[in-house]
Amino acid sequence: MSELLIRNGFVYDPRNGIEGEKVDVSIKDGKIVESVGTGATVIDASGMIVMPGGVDIHSHIAGSKVNAGRILRPEDHEKDVERHTATTRAGTGHSIPSTFTTGYRYAKLGYTTVVEPATPLLKTRHTHEELDDTPIVDKACFPLFGNDWHTMEYLQQGRVEECAAYVAWMLRATKGYAIKIVNPGGVEAWRWGRYLVGLDDRVPNFDITPREIVRGICKVNQLLHLPHTIHVHTNDLAKIGNYQTTIDTMDSVRGLGGENKPSIHITHVQFTGRTGSAWHNVGSGAPEIADYVNKHDHVTVDMGQIVFMNTTTMTADCGFQYMLYQLSGNKWMNFDVEVETGAGVVPYRYRRSNYVNAVQWGIGLELALLIKDPWRVYMTTDHPNGGDFTKYPKIISWLMSRKARNKSLARINSIARNKLDLPDLDREYSFSEIAVVTRAGTAKALGLKEKGHLGVGADADIAVYDINPTKVDPSRDFRLVRKALRKAAFTIKDGRIVVKNGEIVETPVGRTYWVDSTVSEGLMSKVESDMRKTFTRYYTLGMDNYAMADSELANSHRINVKAEV
Amino acid sequence: MIALAKKVISNVTCTFCGSTCDDLQVTVEDEKVLAVRSGCSSSLSKYLNYNAERFLTPLVRKNGQLTETSYEDAVRRSAEILANARYPLLYGWSSTSNEASRAGIELAEWVGGVIDNTTTVCHGPTLLGVHDIGEVSGSLGEIEHRADLVIYWGSNPVHSHPHHIMRYTALSTGRFRPSRKDRKMIVIDVRKTDTAKLADQFIQITPNGDYELMCALRMAVRGDELEQDAISGVPAEVIEELAELMISCQFGVIFFGLGLTMTEGRHRNVDVALSLVRDLNARTKFLIMPMRGHFNVAGANEVSAWVTGYPYAVDLSQGYPRYNPGDTTAIDVLVRGDCDAALVVASDPVSNFPVEASRRLARIPVITIDPHPSATTPIAEVVFPTTIVGIETGGCIHRMDGVAIMTKPLVPPPPGIHSDVEILRDILTHVKKSKMGQWT
Amino acid sequence: MLSGRTLGQGRSKSLGKFSDDYLRNVAVCELDPEDMKALGISPGQNVKVTTKTGSVVVRAAVASQASQRGIVFMPYGLWVNAVIPAETYGTGMPSMKGIEAEIAPAPDEKLLDLEAMVERLTRRG
After folding, report:
1. B124-178: pLDDT as tens digits
2. Nearest alpha-carbon partner for A303 in A268, A327, A263, A351
3. pLDDT, tens digit, 9 for 90 and up, residues B185-194
4. Residues of chain B with C-beta less than 8 angstroms from the C-beta of C14
5. Among A210, A344, B96, B131, which residue has the fewest nearby CB atoms (within 10 Å)?
6. Beta strands at C28-31 and C55-62: parallel, antiparallel or unpaired
7. What ipTM does this complex have?
8. Contact with chain B for residue C65, Cβ under 8 A
9. Which CATH architecture is the domain A3-52+449-504 placed in?
């Protein structure tokens, strides 16, 4: 089964400038090739859309915080079950699916790469255990920095190069892909039960500010030449009107990056895109944020769109979770990780009738509609925080159809509706733009060169959706769009058909991507020797037991880059 | 790593209790463990005696007697028993690796059984409490660095987790708590245990009185007046003083043990303890942590949760995971009489279950996978010897606070012995062959 | 009656559950010395522990850590489980601590070793 030909489909490959033309896609030995022989298996994609497989840049699918959520909420799983079959494992949903179910459900949506965006360094071995039990899709994870003692101390002392070596060591030790920053400095404050306010508050005992942390780590990222930018969940999530902090964070690293290249990614911007001083006057900060993003190309963002459902919030921003527990009265799980970070989990139901939730719903969509360049804004729900990933087709239909949006708008809290700009926004995404915000753009942002496009040499990760773009008007027939995107006609992973008509047919083990940034020997050995001393003092686990061996991953895929230091 | 000449292996992770101390130094020579340094007495005993009472060949019951057999025969017989069972129980898991648990769950799916781990007689009630309340917790290093108030409630670490106090709590050296005098240690128990002797304060409580005392503390923390002179044998002033201590500390922690889970209130005891700590977070920083006993019971819960959604007591008989403690838990499954076969991995339920449950086990075909004979061995149909995780085989385990550690082999296993992962996979291969007919 | 872990139980289980060491460390009931005096029990003597579930004969010992009148302690294992009720009250967890028990001297009764205890299990019912 090494040769495959997908014929007659309407191909959307924005990276290579193909926008709905009928093009044949040839696959051999897991890669896209120019052409294949007559013996190839043929998929007749007539009347169907062909896109690169989805690349989800931010989805909490694996690790101790996700699993804490599963354990916290048996009621979340009871009504959403997956039966064991000859080819698939049993499992459960709903907002926090079990690992096998996660892999299968993503594949059915036509997704082929998923990134777990936040894992504590100390607990990343566990994250990989779960990723190894997540079938089909390729994976990566982002270890957390910015509240860890080593980073804060190095940066406070101005030792940026040593910090870079430490980060490189950690990425290798944890098989991490990129640097994730959540509420920089704020989680160390939380580990004393405290909060920071704004970007210039000082972290207790560390004499450094969030702004200094973000700038310092941004420089580290540049020095290490990591394929992705720093991936940032900004401070002030718990503050009611927090959009300005988002803009200030974006602005704090302006000028630190290279030309025409992003130097910061702000994640789930919806959650930190609010105006207002009290919950009853919350509004959308999307216009201001979109304005900044439109004028500054060093920034990329993802939506963090909410969906009206009973879901589970989970984040390393523990202080925020405590506040959400206080607001909602729901059960609350908290886990502070020594030296490094933390995690908090709270079930939450977003309601149409709830003024704030309705505004939040509007913010996410406004961001995507007001930011002009789809290559710099990506579709996510911060799964499961805004809603689970099986809701993606719904969100896509909101982006593509004003009619779909209006239908939902009609049912939300009317005061919120009047406050939002959303009703007046008539932009509608095209299939091409959808391909960008769900795969081409995300793969590019991640620096995954063989993903997110269908050019020769790309990984043969492909989704075929049963919808004819020449016959269906997505603006009017949004329900058909949802139907088609919910169950891929075909999902192909590394050239093998894994989903056929929305059903799993094969369950290969995906790769786990991680980045090894090679730092100069002299610098690394100095830093390692310093770390040996601090490690013993800081951690309750020895340094040699901390680091993971490559062999611990089921299907390790190392990306090597050369650092500048 | 496999030594013939004498050599010292450092930073070995101990696989005895939930502390999983990772600073053992093991001297090996001629493929045997010679000496161990830095371990507690339980740990030393395990590492120096792991070859005591070791059996080396699989056994099957023939004419009422356990007789030696080949590995292949034992695998075949086991697969037969499990594939033909209507409601098998797959139990144990807490004293082996995550890799074994993962294989075990897959097997449970194929045989349509109940998979449960030792949590069911240990911290099951803790999980039930967590389902209702949540849990405010952290990793052990947080305690080491920050805690100025350490409370052990219904837990006797000197016996159950001998190095806990020294490595993680009152006797440890933390960044913000460099010495013993920077901390206060309180023990709350029904009797003055050896741990209580190390405490700054011991509070004695009447047996089964934890729930009321916790409620009283919650009230006192909230500022309500206690109307009784004493609750659960503890004078009201003592309760009020304790509440004051808890509110005014900078960082407190309650470690609780089976004193809470095994007494009358069970998960309600845990419920109120979790609620107390949650309430305290409105006043100061406070965490709570269950003292997990076995070295990988936390891992068994985590694996079960990520594969099925539920941490223990998972019923797969309908083809999908179902969870209902009290109904799908091992003891209830056995006592009800529904269970018609059992696979026991790295555990000794005949020793650890109430006799009524063990009696049922004695009446059904049981397969055991264990390095050593135990009280469960004499009632088994099939007995597999296996390798020891952390000594002869590696594998991932989770410390009591969920930190994942990869254990490594120190010496090779006796020849011809398979790891439990291998045995489970081989049984599964046979089971799949016989069950495949269902889908064709 | 309470059951629980002890260092002795943990240590000796590594020597093998069929070992004499294990028997000595686990088939035991620890009592307060005052209670022992009142009952006419000397340390090392056999005693019978009875609960509503059943009874078992074990060796009496003076409480090694915390003597408390009215409280007896038995290490986890087959002997204490012979008298622990299986009722979980819908929680999955049996009561293993805080059980009402009656202790009586049993100098003429036999203390069964592990094998005999298991045999007794298979014989009954």
Report:
1. 999 999 999 999 999 999 999 999 999 999 999 999 999 999 999 999 999 999 9
2. A268
3. 999 999 899 9
4. 42, 45-46, 48-50, 52
5. B131
6. parallel
7. 0.97
8. yes
9. Roll (2.30)
